């Protein structure tokens, strides 16, 4: 999680990208939503 967050921060600081642009660019590289979904499925409580 730290690497994508740092990447987003660098996009904003160095290149002046908006949050939306930095998020979209970072998502295209790291596929954070896909990984988040897999983690949620893996760690979901199963009754």
What is the topology?
Layout: H1 2-15, H2 19-30, H3 32-43
Helix pairs in contact: 1-2
Query: Could you tell me how far the N terminus lies from the C terminus, measured between alpha carbons in angstroms?
Result: 28 Å
Structural class of the helices, strands and pairings?
mainly alpha
Largest sheet properties: none
Report strand %: under 5%
Residue stretches low in confidence (pLDDT < 50, at least 5 long) are: none
Using only CA atoms, what is the Rg? Answer: 13 Å
What is the chain-wise order of helices and strands? HHH
When the domains are counted, the total is 1
Helical proportion, percent range: over 70%
Give the overall shape: elongated
Helical run tally: 3
Commentary on this structure:
It is built from 3 helices and no strands. It is mostly helical and 47 residues long. It has one domain. Helix 1 crosses helix 2 (19-30). It is elongated, with a radius of gyration of 13 Å. The model has no long low-confidence stretch (mean pLDDT 92).
Task: Tell me briefly what this model is.
By secondary structure, the protein is an all-alpha fold. It has 3 helices and no strands.
Keywords:
single chain; 81% helix; mainly alpha; 47 residues; 0% strand
């Amino acid at each position: 999680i730290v690497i994508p967050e740092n990447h987003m921060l660098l996009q904003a600081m160095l290149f002046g990208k908006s949050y939306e642009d930095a998020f979209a660019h970072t998502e295209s590289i790291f596929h954070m939503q896909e990984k988040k979904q897999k983690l949620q499925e893996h760690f979901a409580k199963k009754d």
